[in-house]
Amino acid sequence: MPGFLGRPRWFKPDMRTGYFNDGRASFKLGDVWGYLDLVGKHAIPPQFKSDLQFRDGLARVRYPADGNSWDRYSYIDREGTVVWHQED
After folding, report:
1. CA angle centred on 40, ends 34 and 41, rounded to 5°
2. What phi, psi does 24 have (nearest 5°)?
3. 8-state DSSP, 71
4. Distances (CA, A) of 51 to 30, 37, 61, 88
5. Cα gap 73→87, rounded to integer Å
6. How far does Cα 4 stand from its chain's mean position?
7. CA angle, corner 29, sides to 45 and 39, nearest 5?
8. Quick one: which of 46, 2, 1, 49 has its CA closest to 27?
9. What percent of the chain has pLDDT over 90?
10. Which of 26, 30, 41, 69 is the most buried (most CB within 10 A)?
11. How far apart are CA 43 and CA 54, in angstroms?
12. pLDDT in tens, 36-74
């Protein structure tokens, strides 16, 4: 369940987390971001270089197409499936 102002309450105050929006909250593990569901489970494993919030079931993330470039953007759904990917 969300804690104060939508921030996950099971995280320590110094941990990097986003806020709940559309049933997902971002969290940082090492250098990459993933998303949690409302009970604190990894809904989408950490693999992105950004932590934009979900809106209308989609989130814009920086996601490598070739494993080397983080400059491309994708939109993912609440399960982590890429629904649109920026082309060169």
Report:
1. 65
2. -135, 145
3. -
4. 13, 14, 7, 22
5. 9
6. 19
7. 55
8. 46
9. 24
10. 26
11. 13
12. 888 878 899 988 887 788 999 999 998 765 566 666 788
